Amino acid sequence: MARIEVRKTYKLYVGGAFPRSESGRSYEVADTKGRFLANAALASRKDARDAVVAARKAQPGWAGATAYNRGQVLYRVAEVMEGRRAQFAEDVQRAEGLTTRRAEGAVDAAIDRWVWYAGWSDKLAQVLGGTNPVAGPYFNFSIPEPTGVVAAIAPQDSSLLGLVSVLAPAVVSGNTCVLLAAEERPLPAITLSEVLATSDVPGGVVNILTGRVAEVAPWLASHMDVNALDLAGVDDTALRRELEIAAADNVKRVRRAGHVDWSADPGLERVRCFLETKTVWHPIGV
Amino acid sequence: MTPSPASVVADPAGLADVTRSDAALRRFLHGLPGVDQVGADARAAALSTRSIKTTAKAFAIDLAVRMIDLTTLEGADTPGKVRSLCAKARRPDPHDASVPATAAVCVYNDLVGLAKAELGGSGVKVAAVSTAFPSGRASLAVKLADTRDAVTQGADEIDMVIDRGAFLSGRYLEVLEEIAAVKQVCSEGGADAHLKVILETGELATYDNVRRASWLAMMAGADFIKTSTGKISPAATLPVTLVMLEACRDWRDATGAMVGMKPAGGIRTTKDAMRYLVLVNETVGTDWLTPDWFRLGASSLLNDLLLQRQRMSTGRYSGPDYVTVD
């Protein structure tokens, strides 16, 4: 007897749950040859708002966890990704039209990238902060602290490696993130959200939306409760300019878009982008 | 055939007759028609699906702000906290002068004088919770002294709690006389404090009891009936508010007099507030859609209303950085 096909509903990932879009809309996702792959949820501005609320709620707890604990949790994500390697490879292959071997290579690179960033969680303070020399009976420390809620537009070209390279550096330091997946290639991001939900990442730390950049990004850019904006996936220069202007209203940190080779060594630049440095004076003795 | 509740209370002699003894009062209250619990829940749930958008939403937000009794009832209340609460009640959004003031601030008795001085001639009223709030477990003499204290300090409104112990054990007359005695104190010495009677519906167990307590409070001379102290969960709910609003409606049909309604506790979001406004509009009509006859007892609700208002006026989402930390 023929088995009835079990089709998957691709949904958003907000606050640790998988809601459909509040608007009830969806859009067709096709592979590089234009063949239908799936219907993905088409996020509205209210989904973006809900995601920001979830991210804000989760932020103090995530930033308050010890750096060691955050590193462990993020490493756990890589472990679960490894277990889903085949699924990721298929997603990436269909989304980007790669050969099997190259798709697997991209997935391996993404998992390795995640592990690499996870390892940085308890080393950032040593490298990016420090003890400053002063001429007086004081200690003077500079301590990196997370910026808060980061809204990121994931790269449009690299659906998994690019996504991981934007997401991991934002959350490793204690930020929480609202991420808008690549518009035409959202399926690897949705699979990643399933990984995040089943590893130990607290709900709301990462929120993944699928939908139109031109529709959702302006609401994230102008949102007064978002602290930083990563424009990695905004290819349209006019929209990019508009988003930068909207982001200036509450002085968000904005990381501008630009061509990036996602397979290259990323360095700490993206981590540093979403950190605030707190410098404190502390008297010696007394 | 027994006369209908409406015809009994419509006639002063009839009212005097049923309040003559505990037994007569019990007969009357238990003769009130029972509440269809499933029906009340379903009606409240159906009304809460109404969608209020754009200009109607803007109107409703401002109306809700004007209806708020901005409340702080903590053991840790300080004069500083009450001062900042009063400042917020007068001008909820410092960046936007077009936001109306709230209806009142609601504080414990000992802070009434302070609140009164802060609010001055701003038109924002001061409500005091009296009669051994929130439990109501004190002798009548203490409750009356408590009320007198608030009234002499200049409280415009008194929020009293009923004795739920007496109500639940069926001593209705005692509850009625207590409310009437407190009402008396509210107008002592030329004062004219409005009396809000808190039923604490979370402790009344059934909607039938809520209806009886509502009628009892109105028969005793309440100016307002109020759901809860906010110290008990569940506090205000939509179905309970529906039952109480129906009592207000029936009371006006019978006597021609309006009694106000105040749900309190657990109303935190703009969406919640809209649902209450819809409920009022659909149950008792637009006559009650003013701060004179409907209030919302809340504290964090105001911030959410302000965030929504900012969103509507600026076209972008606002955040908790742009309202007060309470």
Describe the protein.
The complex is a heterodimer of chains A (286) and B (326). By secondary structure, chain A is of the alpha/beta class. Chain A has a single domain, classed as Aldehyde Dehydrogenase, Chain A, domain 1 (3-Layer(aba) Sandwich), CATH 3.40.605. Helices cover 43% and strands 18% of the residues of chain A. Chain A is built from ten helices and ten strands. In chain A, the strands form three sheets. In chain A, strands 7-6-5-8-9 form a five-stranded parallel sheet, sandwiched between helices. In chain A, strands 3-4-10 form a three-stranded antiparallel sheet. Chain A has a two-stranded antiparallel ribbon with strand order 1-2. In chain A, helix 3 (85-96) crosses helix 4 (100-120), helix 3 runs antiparallel to helix 7 (187-198) and helix 4 packs parallel to helix 6 (161-171). Chain A is globular, with a radius of gyration of 19 Å. The termini of chain A are far apart. Chain B is of the alpha/beta class. Chain B has one domain (40-313): TIM Barrel. Helix content of chain B is 49%, strand content 10%. Chain B is built from 14 helices and eight strands. Chain B has helices spanning 5-10, 12-18, 22-30, 37-47, 54-67, 79-90, 112-119, 140-152, 164-168, 172-186, 207-219, 238-255, 270-283, 300-314; strands at 68-71, 104-108, 125-130, 157-161, 194-198, 224-226, 260-262, 296-298. Chain B has an eight-stranded parallel sheet with strand order 7-6-5-4-3-2-1-8. The N and C termini of chain B lie far apart (56 Å). In chain B, 49% of the residues are buried. Chain A binds chain B through residues 49, 52, 56, 219, 222-226, 246, 249-250, and chain B through 315-322.
Supply the key terms.
heterodimer, A: 286 residues, alpha/beta, Aldehyde Dehydrogenase, Chain A, domain 1, 5-stranded parallel beta sheet, 3-stranded antiparallel beta sheet, 10 helices, B: 326 residues, TIM Barrel, 8-stranded parallel beta sheet, 8 strands, globular
